[in-house]
Amino acid sequence: MSEARTPVRSTGKGAARQTVTISFAGFNRAWAAWIGDRLERRGLRVVYLRWDAPPDQSLAGLLRDLTLAEGRTLILVSEWYFQLGPRTHEEWNAALREVVAPDPARFAAVSVTNTTVPSATAVLAPVDLTNMGADEAERRLLDRLDVPYDTPVTTDAGRPAPRFPASMPDVWGGVPRRNTRFTGREPLLNDAYHLLQGSESGAGVLTLHGMSGVGKTQLAAEYVYRFGSEYDVVWWVGAEKRVTYRRLLAELAPRLGLATGPEYGERLRAVRDSLRRGNPYSRWLLVLDGADEPEQIWDLVPTGPGHVLITSRNPEWSEHNSKLLEVPVYARDESVAFIRRRAPRLTETDADQLAEALEDLPLLLDQTAGWLNDSDLSVDEYIALLDGGIDQDVVKVSADFPLAFQTAWSILLNKLRETVPESVDLLRLCTFFAPGFIPVRLLKEMSHDDLPEQLAGLLDDPLLWNKAVNQLRQYSVVRLESHEAAIDEAASSGESVYLHRMVHQIVHKDMPEQDRHEFIEVVRRALAEADPGRPTDTRNWDAYAEIVPHLKYADVLQSKDRRVQSLVLNCLRYMLFAGEYSAGVKLGARALRAWRRLLGESHPRVWEVTYHYANLMRSAGRFQETEAIDRAAMEQLRQDRGEHDLDHLRMAGGLAADLRELARYDDALQLDEWLYPTYRDLFGEQDSRTLNALNNLGFTMRLQGRYEEARAIDLKTLEARRLLLKGRHPWTLFSEVSYAVDLRLLGRYSEAESAQTKNVREHHLVMGRDHQSTLRAEHNLALCKLRGGDRATAGELLTHVLEGYERKLGDTHVHTLAAAVSQSCFAREHGDIDQAREASESVIARYELLLPEGHPFIIGARANHALILRSVGEREHAHVVMEEALAGMSAALGESHPHSLGCAINASALRNLVGEPESAAELSRITITRATEALGRTHPLTLSARISHAADLRALRDRQQAEKVEQEALSDLAATLGPQHVHTISARSRNRPYWDFEPQAS
Fold it and tell me: d(Cα 285, Cα 604) in Å, to the nearest integer?
């Protein structure tokens, strides 16, 4: 056959390169891109020509137009190529015989389908490229075009090659099945492609927006299949709810090969960081489907070299750095083509009439044409029904839905009732779940005892269930597929269905009141029975993340069923541990209001939800509001039940935590000093609740700067936990860190480092390297190493800890900020001063958002920043900032608190630096007196004050007194820390010491 072929050649005068024109259906664009790239890399010129066959034009004429193209025409044979129009096989056979048969050498063809095509396609002699690898497909392509296989291949490092269409991207997940009835939308697809490809790195975000039912999701799915070969990662996530979006995006972490723990927050931050850096993949596409509330998720949309495609009814995405592309209803020719493909029995005139009546809305066309094809009803008769044959009051929907949709749905529901009435029952059940992906398997898995009679048969009889599901599927009322579309078995068994929000709203409103009451109770029971029961176990988080979006639609807060109420409380706990603070706060607030009305102000469930709500508010950084909630609850419980009631004690503990966060340490201490003996008297010394109260007392002591008392309490707690819980229990390990922190703050650096090194090893074994408790342990070890002079190890650990906290807890959590403070201080002294300044300014800004003005953490961060200003030569500015910090810290914590003493040491140095030696010497002298009384003569902070005072005396030229003070301090330094300790050596070299503020976050 090769003798009969015409080799590819240029037909243009003087053209330097041979030309091939590729004619392809838009559906097969990925094949066209790959074939064109293979030919271009072998020196050929390629022209791309998307095929269309409008029904009002001659098919033979359109084929003749192809012969006008330069060079040879390569046709990509597929069922899509021949369906456009649509055209029958008979029309195609006639056109191929008329145009191609006389001059077959003008055309070449490759086949990318296994389905039946018009018989006359044989005249094109297509070679099959399916069911083989890329190398063999390329060999066959070149052979068909008579291009030698040994033609040199050019490479272009700046242009990644499209992926072979038969191979999937390296990472692919969540994408719905391709809609084989997808029709038209070519300009929209091309616009979307060019808008994304033309974006600068980090700005490739495009929102497809439009009213419900116009096919935004279908358009996004078609975009993925057409252009997916240009990406290495394609990941589709439902973005209707923040909790669902976070879970699905976090699931990308293991697929990207990222080393993280199981928590969603950590995985999510790792994914966003990986996508931002483009490592390990820079060509990625993330699809956010149904993101109708930008304010819910805009802060979690990744940036980087890849692309984000969003579907939404809300054009406000433009305010969040997204380009917009409006998706209108079908053009009339698209409507007609789609209807004729969906309902082959209808003529072109019928299709045009139906499209006119249904206002070209794709979802409505799909559902109506599907069942109209199976009906004896004519289009005229159907339109007569639309024109007034149905009571419009039956269905009430939002104003943005066409009136025709309301009536058409009434007709469709009547059709379903007549054929399989159970399908309507199933559909109504689905409306008590959230729209979108609905886990109907929960209905099948629940206990079927005491079900309403009309539902018992549906849920008990698998055959009837499948019949109902298939009926809904047949008329496109639901899509039958698992959200993880690759799991075909789950989809085919009806494990999950997809219900469009517009259908959801229509059906929900068109429901008898008796059904509404019975059906909602069934769904509530199904959700309650799906509760795994252990929200602290990360293995159960997928289950809770699936349940949470449906709570609102099942109106669970109005249920008096204890199992349903327990589900709500467990979901709140899940949201706390999974870091879903914002959504948890909203659910907690609604639950508190609803249960107060439903159960009464003093019902035990009300106090329980109050406790969980307060924990979520505290975790969200809303400390002042939490303090008011906890205080009111505590006082009410004490009045109603007495001060020894367990709920009262629990709320009192929460209030103490609030007071610690707000730096009201004296008030917190008063509560802690009452709670510990109360728990001890009620439960004994060896009860875990007693030990938790003792632990909190020790923490408050440390925050007050009473380090020796804190050490004694933490040691007592540690020893008791070792007896009660054993050495490797998480709380025992926590107490070991607290004790090591106390030792370090007391200047017992060697002991602290020894204890902390052992504890970190235990954390790695028990908690894993990525757990936040491990990061807390490693943070303290880094500071121990730094005090001991091992700067290299300290620097590596601080970087690791900060990155870990940012991944796990986010950049505004108190633990993350504490690590950021340490990292900034380290960078100031041993790294990049510009980096240190940027980090310091960021820390201050985040603290100011999180905490009230006057909080010691804000003041301390500003004190640290003053030292950076000093280092970059801004002495006067540094002096002003430090003086303000000294005054603020003294007012907040008292003049003898270690933080105030540290500010005083730094302030005396800056006074000296700006030419105020007398004031500096007086301040350092007073600081020695206060530090000696508070911490002792040989505490590192006191020794720093003594070395500083010697420097101030030298500035006043009081050399004799300066020498005396310095030698005494050096002697005590050598005796306390050792003659070769870095602090001793630095003091001996007359390097003036400075103090770094260190926030105690736990």
Answer: 49
Give the pLDDT confidence score for residue 476 in this predicted structure: 66
**CA count, 13 A, side-chain hemisphere, 463:** 0
Both tokens of 652, joined, read 């009192």
Distances (CA, A) of 929 to 92, 157, 747: 101, 69, 18
| HSE value, Cβ hemisphere, 13 Å, CA-based, for 490 | 17
Q: Residue 231: which residues within 8 A CB-CB, separation 6 or more?
A: 169, 283, 284, 285, 306, 307
* Lowest mean pLDDT across 165-174, 407-416, 747-756: 407-416
Residues found in the chain = 1002
Q: What is the rounded distance in angstroms from the CA atom of residue 675 to the CA atom of residue 672?
A: 5
Match 């940012």 to its residue by tokens: 806
Instruction: Sort strands 436-438 and 497-499 into parallel, antiparallel or unpaired.
Output: antiparallel
3-state secondary structure (DSSP) of residue 401 = coil
Per the CB < 8 A criterion, the answer to whether 786 and 275 are in contact is no
DSSP codes of every residue in 115-181: S---GGGGGG-PEE-SSS-HHHHHHHHHHHTT--TTSPPP--TTSPPPPPTTS--SEEESPPPP-TT
Q: 482 or 923: whose pLDDT is higher?
A: 923
Angle at 375 between CA 371 and CA 376, to 5 degrees: 160
Average pLDDT, the chain: 88
Q: Pull the structure tokens for residue 699.
A: 């923490």
DSSP state of 992: P
Residue 863's Cβ-count burial label (10 Å; 0-12, 13-18, 19+) is buried
- The top-scoring range by mean pLDDT among 25-34, 135-144, 223-232, 397-406 is 135-144
pLDDT of residue 498: 83
Q: If pLDDT is split at 50, 70 and 90, which confidence band does 782 have?
A: very high
Residue from 394, 370, 515, 498 nearest 455 by CA: 515
Would you put residue 430 in left (φ > 0), alpha (ψ -120 to 50) or beta? alpha
pLDDT at residue 16 tops 90:
no
Task: Work out whether the CA dihedral 196, 199, 203, 207 comes out positive or negative.
Answer: negative
Cα(48)–Cα(195) distance, integer angstroms: 19
With a CB cutoff of 8 Å and minimum separation 6, the contacts of 787 are 744, 749, 752, 753, 983
d(CA 541, CA 538): 5
| Token duo for residue 414 | 């009547």
Distance CA 349, CA 351 (A): 5
- For 97-106, 154-163, 274-283, 723-732, which range has the lowest pLDDT when averaged over its residues? 154-163
Tokens standing for 32?
């066209």
The edge-to-edge listing of strands for the beta sheet with 307-312 is 171-173, 233-238, 284-289, 307-312, 205-209, 323-326
Q: How far apart are CA 276 and CA 848, in angstroms?
A: 27
User: HSE on the CB side for 541, CA within 13 Å?
Assistant: 23
909 near 920, Cβ under 8 Å? yes
Label the pairing between strands 205-209 and 45-50: unpaired
Cβ pair 803, 258 in contact under 8 A: no
> Model confidence over 127-160: pLDDT tens digits?
999 888 889 999 999 999 988 888 788 776 566 7
Query: How far apart are the C-alpha atoms of 98 and 614, rounded to whole Å?
Result: 79
More confident residue, 932 or 190: 932
Query: 986-1002: per-residue pLDDT in tens?
Result: 999 999 999 999 999 87
Place of tokens 């997204």: 322
- With the C-alpha atoms ordered 609, 613, 619, 624, is the resulting torsion angle positive or negative? negative
Does pLDDT of 386 surpass 70?
A: no
Do residues 291 and 311 touch, judged by C-beta distance below 8 A? yes
Which residues touch 1 (CB under 8 Å, ≥6 apart)? Answer: 125
